[in-house]
Structure formats: structure tokens, C-alpha cells
């Protein structure tokens, strides 16, 4: 392979890498325009067993809007509404966008919120453990 071909290959790889990096944002509140690419980015979301348990305990999503109050009720019971300001979380599968009214939520944000809850003793004291332990006092 000649030098020119090598150079072209290197340039192509560089472009591809730049594109991948652009699309691998954290999807957090500071960079809402960055997006996940489904399951391949799961490892970037730092999903803990507790988070997984919290998500899988949510009621299954139905396509109708009538499902939203049920999800919201479930979350209110868990005390999550305080952190999400009453927004219904519609969880079906990782790495997808869900909308509730005018709010758009990325699952990665839910992961961040639930990890925050796990790490916040004040939250656990006030609302009880989302995984089932009762609130203290």
C-alpha cells in the first residue's frame, strides 16, 4: 500500500472517530442536544443493579396517554416526584426518548436521578428507599 492510500485511510478513520465522539454525549441536562445510540452506550450510563431494579419496578408503558397518571402515581408513591418535579417517567427500554406533555426525558437522566437518590441519605430519610426500605421517622 502506497503512502497516499495510507494517508486516505488514516483521514477516513479520523473522520469516523470524530463522528462517533460527537454522538457519544452524556445526554445530561447541561448537554441535552447530545444523544445516546441505544444499547451500545449502556456502559456509559453507569447502570447499577439498584437503578435497574428501580426501573424494572415501574409499570409497563402503554402507548395511550392514560398510562401517564398511573406511572406518575407509582413514582409519587416512591417519592421520586420531588426530584423530577412531578414529571411522569415513561420507561420502556434504555437509550430512547420519551415525552410526557411538553417534557422530554432521556433515560440517562433517569439513571443520574436514581443514582443521586441512592447516594442521598436525606432523600432516603424523607421518602424511604425506592427499593422498598421504609422511611425513617
Summary, kept brief:
The chain is mostly helical and 137 residues long. 47% of the residues lie in helices and 6% in strands. It has a two-stranded antiparallel ribbon with strand order 1-2.
Note down, in words, how this protein is organized:
This protein is mostly helical. It has one domain (3-127). The protein is 47% helix and 6% strand. The protein has six helices and two strands. Strands 1-2 form a two-stranded antiparallel ribbon. Strand 1 and strand 2 (103-106) form a beta hairpin. The longest helix has 20 residues, at 3-22. The chain starts with a helix and ends in a 10-residue tail after the last helix. Residues 25-47, 59-68, 79-108 and 123-137 have low confidence and may be disordered.
The secondary-structure element order is HHHHEEHH
Overall shape: elongated
Largest beta-sheet details: 2 strands, antiparallel
Q: How many separate domains?
A: 1
Evaluate the radius of gyration.
19 Å
Poorly predicted regions are 25-47, 59-68, 79-108, 123-137
Write out key terms for the chains shown.
137 residues, mainly alpha, 6 helices, 6% strand
Summarize the topology.
Layout: H1 3-22, H2 49-56, H3 67-78, H4 81-84, E1 97-100, E2 103-106, H5 107-119, H6 121-127
Antiparallel strand pairs: 1-2
Amino acid at each position: 500500500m502506497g503512502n497516499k492510500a495510507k494517508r486516505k485511510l488514516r483521514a477516513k478513520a479520523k473522520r469516523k472517530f470524530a463522528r462517533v465522539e460527537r454522538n457519544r454525549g452524556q445526554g445530561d441536562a447541561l448537554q441535552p442536544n447530545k444523544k445516546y445510540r441505544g444499547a451500545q452506550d449502556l456502559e456509559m450510563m453507569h447502570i447499577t443493579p439498584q437503578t435497574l431494579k428501580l426501573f424494572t419496578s415501574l409499570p409497563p408503558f402503554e402507548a395511550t396517554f392514560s398510562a401517564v397518571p398511573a406511572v406518575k402515581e407509582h413514582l409519587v408513591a416512591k417519592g421520586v416526584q420531588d426530584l423530577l418535579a412531578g414529571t411522569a417517567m415513561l420507561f420502556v427500554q434504555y437509550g430512547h426518548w420519551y415525552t410526557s406533555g411538553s417534557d422530554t426525558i432521556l433515560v440517562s437522566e433517569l439513571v443520574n436521578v436514581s443514582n443521586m437518590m441512592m447516594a442521598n441519605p436525606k432523600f432516603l430519610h424523607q421518602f424511604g428507599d425506592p427499593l422498598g426500605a421504609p422511611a425513617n421517622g
